[in-house]
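<purpose> Linking amino acid order to shape
<body> The protein record starts here
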Amino acid sequence: MPLYINNKISILYMHIPKTGGAYIEDLLRANSYSQFYWRGKRLTQFDLCTPQHYTLAQLSGVIDLTAITFIFATVRHPYKRLLSEYTMRHPLHDVQIDQWLDEAYGNYLNNPYAYDNHLRPQAEFHQSGTRYYKQEDSFDEKWAFKFENDSSLSLPIKQVPRRKEAKRTHKKILFSDLSYKIRDKYYNLYKNDFKTFNYDPEEID
């Protein structure tokens, strides 16, 4: 959940796990914003998750949200986010996906912070009124102009080098490859995400 500060201007980017956003991070840094609360390790052994994956409710106990200039989040189709999580953890597909998702579901029910908050429904990260942007709309220079308009902030630099993406060496996993049992479990888990962010659960691939 990185916080960006440039003089008296502050931007809170609610970076929900597996929703993209590398361009956004690089864009803000290129425009002289210092980055805070972006840490890939827990601060202590007692922390429930790393600071970069705090929910807005968690962060509200640390900083004064009313003092932030602009707060926004990035979101993604729940099923695509889920498949991305599996691929990140098992790039070689060495564990059968139904097996892993079934186990992950049980782990999440036992501990909502499991996998560093990566499985938590996206709707639980933000609060009413937070502006959100869909990964499917692409984060690029065109998006930067929209962000300027929405936030009333100036970003003189809009073109930043793209990070190299890892090459896919295996067949792409499709949601339709999953068993109906697994599909039903995750539909129920992410039901509020579909409604909140206007995603169609029938658009599975």
Summary: The CA atoms of residues 22 and 135 lie 11 Å apart. The longest helix spans residues 97-110. The mean pLDDT is 89. The chain is about 30% helix and 10% strand.
